[in-house]
Amino acid sequence: MSERHIWITPDRQTAWIWKALAIHLAGKTGMRPVLIVASEEDRKFYAAQGGVQFPGDIVVRDDYYSELVDGRLDDMESDEVFRRAREYEERHGVSLMRSMLLADRHLGRGFIPGGAGYPRSHISEHADIVRALRACLRSVEFWERLADTHPPGLVISFGGGGGLVGKPYALLCRERGIPLRILFPFRFGDTFYWARDEFGRFPELEAALEDFRWPTETEIEAVARELQPSGFATNAVHTGRIARNLRWSRIAYMVARVPIQSVYWAIRGYRKGRIGAKPLAQMRNLINARLNWNILNRLALRDLSRLDSRRIVYFTLQQEPESSTLVMAPYVTNQVALLRELALSLPADTQLVVKEHIWALY
């Protein structure tokens, strides 16, 4: 029997945990750890992190973004691309457009309302449907090739399992019966849980809720006093930072920094400087955030007493583009259309009240 491996796809925001976790799990399970990273810079970082030698392999993913920009994804005729893409869809019962491209902020930006405002990039400028599907196939090829050379016994990621990077390994795990554990943030408190798939499902919690005893009023009040929003919520820290960034003086500073940063990336040869968001698009986006804020302020309802005589349905929008709609709920992605349908369906004495997500400004 071939050696089994633990695949771990690190997250940059929580980079401190993944190397140590891989070493710990390798000791517990006897499986060889594999860190799967996005770039050569990431590989060097994790190899040197903590001054500890990694007892496994650090593998750099295929860079289909660079291949797309450099024209290296044009090595297959469109008919062949469509045929292979369709075969993969039928094999797994998915749609590549919905399951992989929709969640990609560069290749899927034209398919969701929120994506249209996202800064244009070198990737989106070079993409068409054939190249986008070819990028999907390249990602699939990488993970299936890695499964041949490093057969997984366990796959771990942070909030992954969707888009061009994550969906192929999520489907591979499902097809081959490989345990998949994805670290998902809870919506309240700075806590996390291990989901069993890319949709955030947690069977043990779901089973517990089936037998859940309805809390008393006293218990509800006690929890409400202690309940805190998560680090992903629009709490005072985040809204304060956004408010500071929306000052014209701060915007002028950030706009001036973009070209300097772009030149630095080019000199250093960083990948994101070659394929990432275009400098002018980034600068325009910073200014648009303030203009969007002005529009929302004009539209905002400030006198809530106007709602006293009517029933209300309160709807909070999700940030877009983001995994909460594009990965975890890929069949309900158009929030604007959903709002229209809700407004048309409500009784005559009921008002729809909508809260925009503050992070959607950007």
Largest sheet at a glance?
6 strands, mixed
Instruction: Work out the strand percent.
Output: 5-15%
Order of helices and strands: EHEHEHHHHHEHEEHHHHHHEHHE
Identify low-pLDDT runs.
Answer: none
Helix content: 40-55%
Strand order of the largest sheet: 3-2-1-4-5-6
What Rg is obtained from the alpha carbons, in whole angstroms?
A: 23 Å
Backbone shape: globular
Amino-to-carboxy terminus distance:
50 Å
Total E-strand runs = 8
SS-based structural class?
alpha/beta
H/I helix tally:
16
Rounded average pLDDT: 89
Short description:
This protein has 362 residues and is α/β, with parallel strands linked by helices.
Task: Describe the structure in your own words.
By secondary structure, the protein is an alpha/beta fold. The protein contains 16 helices and eight strands. It has helices at residues 15-29, 40-48, 64-69, 78-92, 96-101, 122-126, 129-149, 163-176, 203-210, 217-226, 236-245, 248-268, 271-275, 279-299, 323-326, 335-345; strands spanning 5-9, 32-37, 57-60, 152-158, 180-185, 192-195, 311-316, 350-355. The strands form two sheets. Strands 3-2-1-4-5-6 form a six-stranded mixed sheet, with helices on both faces. The protein has a two-stranded parallel ribbon with strand order 7-8. β2 (32-37), α2 (40-48) and β3 form a beta-alpha-beta unit. The longest helix has 21 residues, at 129-149. The chain is globular. The model has no long low-confidence stretch (mean pLDDT 89).
